[in-house]
Amino acid sequence: MFRVAARTNILRGASTRSFLSSRFASTLALIETNAEGKLEPSCLNLLDAAKQLNNPIVALFVGSKAAIGAQDLQDSVKCEGLSKILVAKDSSLDHYLPENVSPLLADLLKDEEYTHFVVSSSSVGKNILPRLGALIDNQPVCDVIKILGPTKFIRPIYAGNALATIECPQTKKLLSIRASAFPAVETGKLEGAEVAEVPFTLKDALPIEWVSANLTKTSRPELGSAKVIVTGGRAFKDKESFEKYMVPLADSLNAAIGATRAAVDNGLCDNSLQIGQTGKIVAPSLYIAVGVSGAVQHLAGMKDSGTIVAINNDPDAPIFKNADYGLEGDLFEIVPQLTEKINAA
Ligand code: FAD
């Protein structure tokens, strides 16, 4: 059975309001880079959010490869309002250790010019923001999904089941930005941004040492920035069947593969694939949920996707209420047929 389901999305179609900025206000944006020093894709969305604050933007790069990031930004991103790039080249800032990066940020934010600080709501942002808030005695606003004005922001609460509008009267607004809720700024060449070095010496170092990182390498698009995601749930009984059906479907669409927590807990795939309240938050243009019931904790991570397709043999599965297109039936029959049709198209 093929059916079309309607869903409402309170964020969609809302117009972006512009507002007047203070003459001295400016936004400091911590730009994350990867191990090679290149920009993380989420920084394009972070810069869009920074633009919406309508202040001049100062981009900050930290760590021994900071200059590579600054160059990459100049070579690949067009961002109106980005007037300055700060580079804090010090190896103690590598890996964004919050114990080391937060004092630098606290120092920079002493400058009255900065009214806003933005960072992605990534593990880096989630590590740094509370510590920074404590250092400058300021309450951060986490996981912002909409900017209503220089002091008013929307963030999800209760696993995305409610949206809170926050009025932030503090002189410094510390914000973490949910990348999937903002579009990416244009790619291109950044014109006219001045680059300056920030001297940094670690004082009162805490006994923190970076040991190692175990990263899952994949040739597929990264979940956080993928345009298409196919997600498998507990309906797959083992790892072999998860891979047998999900990999060809993902290949046919050049998609990233995601999973529910039940799929991860049952050992069907790596936990880096988990989407949801305790996993990654995604909003691709197309999201195909295969054998996923649609628990609230899963919906919290994907309900802002553009078009949602659900494949499930239970007509009452909650995922259908959140899907634009529903395919009711056995996934072991539907998925190979769908993959074949996509490949033939
Ligand atoms: P199920 O709920 O078991 O659903 C399987 C679905 O597959 C069913 O709807 C069934 O009808 C369908 N199915 C079975 N066989 C077939 C078939 N042959 N063909 C077609 N369809 C079939 N979950 C997350 O996903 N992400 C999170 O981040 C997350 N965080 C959580 C945090 C907390 C604090 C808690 C308490 C829970 C969290 N969960 C999370 C778990 C969540 O509540 C659900 O248990 C989980 O999402 C269910 O995963 P599922 O849809 O794969 O499994």
Automatic annotation (TrEMBL):
Subcellular location: Mitochondrion matrix
Annotated SUPFAM superfamilies: Adenine nucleotide alpha hydrolases-like, DHS-like NAD/FAD-binding domain
Role description: The electron transfer flavoprotein serves as a specific electron acceptor for several dehydrogenases, including five acyl-CoA dehydrogenases, glutaryl-CoA and sarcosine dehydrogenase. It transfers the electrons to the main mitochondrial respiratory chain via ETF-ubiquinone oxidoreductase (ETF dehydrogenase).
Family that this chain belongs to: Belongs to the ETF alpha-subunit/FixB family.
Cofactor note: Binds 1 FAD per dimer.
Electron transfer flavoprotein alpha/beta-subunit N-terminal domain segment(s): 27-220
Keyword DNA damage attributed: no
Keywords (A to Z) from UniProt: Electron transport, FAD, Flavoprotein, Mitochondrion, Transport
Taxonomic source organism: Maudiozyma humilis (Sour dough yeast)
Lineage: Eukaryota, Fungi, Dikarya, Ascomycota, Saccharomycotina
One example GO MF annotation: electron transfer activity
Listed name of the protein: Probable electron transfer flavoprotein subunit alpha
Annotated GO CC locations: mitochondrial matrix
Co-factor(s): FAD
InterPro entries, sorted: DHS-like_NAD/FAD-binding_dom, ETF_a/b_N, ETF_a/FixB, ETF_alpha_N, ETF_asu_C, ETF_asu_C_CS, Rossmann-like_a/b/a_fold
Subunit field text: Heterodimer of an alpha and a beta subunit.
Chief location: mitochondrion
Positions annotated to bind FAD: 234, 260-261, 274-278, 291-298, 312
One record GO biological process: fatty acid beta-oxidation using acyl-CoA dehydrogenase
Cross-referenced CDD domains: ETF_alpha
